[in-house]
Amino acid sequence: MEADGTQATSGSLNDSQHDPGKMFIGGLSWQTSPDSLRDYFSKFGEIRECMVMRDPTTKRSRGFGFVTFTDAASVDKVLAQPHHELDSKTVSLRLAPSLCHPGPL
């Protein structure tokens, strides 16, 4: 499933809160689309969801997105590679943050 980041995606909120297969992708080119994000990261494993976050008013990319792999082991494969370049930009990666914090911040 692809989303442009301007709408909620299907699934309950609890499904995505602690998904070990979900990664934050930062530093995206303004030209990066969900399709190009999917094309790049699919070499690491099967992708369940891929989205580029967009400003709801201008529809312009906000420069980051999320990729959710079907198998959490794919995240380890991505993180094992130190450099990732997409659309001529080096992107930063990390596990997606939890939507709620179990304790004090």
Defining key terms:
5-stranded mixed β-sheet, 7 strands, 30% strand, globular, disordered N terminus
| Beta strand count | 7
**Order of neighbouring strands in the sheet with most strands:** 1-3-4-2-7
Largest sheet: 5 strands, mixed
Helix/strand order, N-terminal first: EHEHEEHEEE
Strand content: 25-35%
Characterization of the model:
This protein is α+β, with helices and mostly antiparallel strands and 105 residues long. It is built from three helices and seven strands. The strands form two sheets. A five-stranded mixed sheet has the order 1-3-4-2-7. A hairpin with a 6-residue loop joins strand 3 (47-54) and strand 4. The protein is globular. The termini are far apart.
Give the topology.
Layout: E1 2-3, H1 13-17, E2 22-26, H2 34-41, E3 47-54, E4 61-69, H3 73-80, E5 85-86, E6 89-90, E7 92-95
Parallel strand pairs: 1-3
Antiparallel strand pairs: 2-4, 2-7, 3-4, 5-6
Offer a quick outline of the entry.
The protein has helices at residues 13-17, 34-41, 73-80; strands at residues 2-3, 22-26, 47-54, 61-69, 85-86, 89-90, 92-95.
